[in-house]
Model the fold of this input.
Amino acid sequence: MPAQVTGVYADLYAWENLYSAWRKAARGKRMRGPAAAFEYRLEDNLIRLQAELAEERYQPGAYASFTIHEPKRRLISAAPFRDRVVHHALCNIIEPAFERSFIAHSYANRIDKGTHRALDQCQTWARRYPYVLQCDLRQFFPSIDHAILRRTLHRHIQDGAIRRLIDRILASGVGVLAEEYEMVYFPGDDLFAVNRPRGLPIGNLTSQFWANCYMNPFDHFVTRELGCTAYLRYVDDFLLFGDDKRTLWAWKQAIVARLAKLRLTLHAGSAQVKPVTQGIPFLGFVVYPTHRLLKRRKGIAYRRKLRDLLRRYDGSVPARVPIDRSVRGWINHVRYGDTWGLRKAVLKAVKL
Done:
């Protein structure tokens, strides 16, 4: 029986939890407008939020949306800062119960997991198995079905007030990604299926966490029912390793059928079985059994970004800070691949 969240709504709006949630929401953003404005009257804002939550009067605000184009085009929808505090407060309470049910090799948005550990595990299995089935999901966040997600969350959450809060947050995101979704009809659908509430705004902490909750039954299907012991997932990208092609192709057919129950579909063209020696494009790198290379377009994109930063540099000390921060962050990421030559070439361009 899964761990349950019950009788803990008062813990959600307790002062200690709200203060912790504010600190998490403000991390790295305290000098920016919305976070700074909230902090200017921090106690008043937290007390107001506490009262709204205690009396179940809290209503999420409107999203601000913008488009990013790297690593690929995505519509990001940011909730108001006070709502982000609530998202952190909610996750503080419910996340531990779900975390215990997640598989070990789900790596996105989890403590002590992340991109680099996913790459390490990918390479470990690439050295052990000759073949890989690589899959990614079409329009994942826009496709997430609210009715299915709500049932998944409610199996763990018995507290009625927390359920109602989740429903309000879910409802606030209906339609935000409507233009990003191309309708897919599944067996048994009628024409009204187009009206099913769907989509989680990319940018919410709750969206990242709930995406793992949504995919968790699928993760267990692959590892338990299919018996794939070398499976890992990072958000909507996942890999299955095996000893022979026939088994992996059979698994793919079973995966397609199982994903349909979640109203999700694969990018069919990229879901192929291939030898690991061909390289596995994954999380910005190409992973081989013996080494890792940064994807070429990633290197080109960073050179372009760095040139733009250098072009705007006016020689002052404050103007140098974002350049130093950018270069350090990039190096810390790409050092997880065989990129020594690339790093030397890029750093030669930085002559301040």
